[in-house]
Design a protein that fits this description.
The chain has helices spanning about 30-45, 55-60, and strands spanning about 65-70, 85, 105, 120. The protein is of the alpha+beta class and about 120 residues long. The strands form two sheets. Strands 1-2 form a two-stranded antiparallel sheet. A two-stranded antiparallel ribbon has the order 3-4.
Length: about 120
């Protein structure tokens, strides 16, 4: 788990359904337990998820930063459709923090392709 920021797991409503993914996917209750267990491990190890692990500083230099997928007008509430990621040599807000901005109102106009910054939004 050290260094992992994203876990991919397939979810289905019925593992008996035909298809390539259903047989090894989790049903909703299994997914709930999967998430619970991941949180428990993090808590048991007393991990600080904000500290750098291994070679992470390299990825900060060349990581994906949030950008505006389209023009965002002042006062607009942000949704995932407004955000995208782009590789930059100087890191902006990491893509993994996109959910922080959901539902926030823009306090200035943001042009398509501009890096997203915390000072673009009203925090409540």
């Amino acid at each position: 788990m050290l260094g992992a920021r994203v876990f991919e797991k397939h979810v289905t409503l019925n593992r008996a359904w035909k298809g390539t993914d259903h047989s090894f996917a989790l049903e909703p209750e299994g997914m709930r337990k999967f998430v619970r267990d991941i949180k428990r491990v993090s808590h048991m190890l007393n991990l600080n998820i904000d500290e750098d692990i291994g070679n992470e500083p390299v990825f900060k230099k060349l990581g994906k930063s949030l950008v505006a997928k389209k023009n965002i007008d002042i006062g607009s509430k942000i949704s995932l459709d407004d955000l995208s990621g782009r590789i930059f040599f100087e890191q902006g807000v990491p893509v993994r923090e996109a959910y922080f901005f959901l539902g926030k109102k823009a306090i200035k106009d943001i042009k398509k392709g501009d890096k997203i910054s915390y000072h673009h939004f009203k925090t409540e």
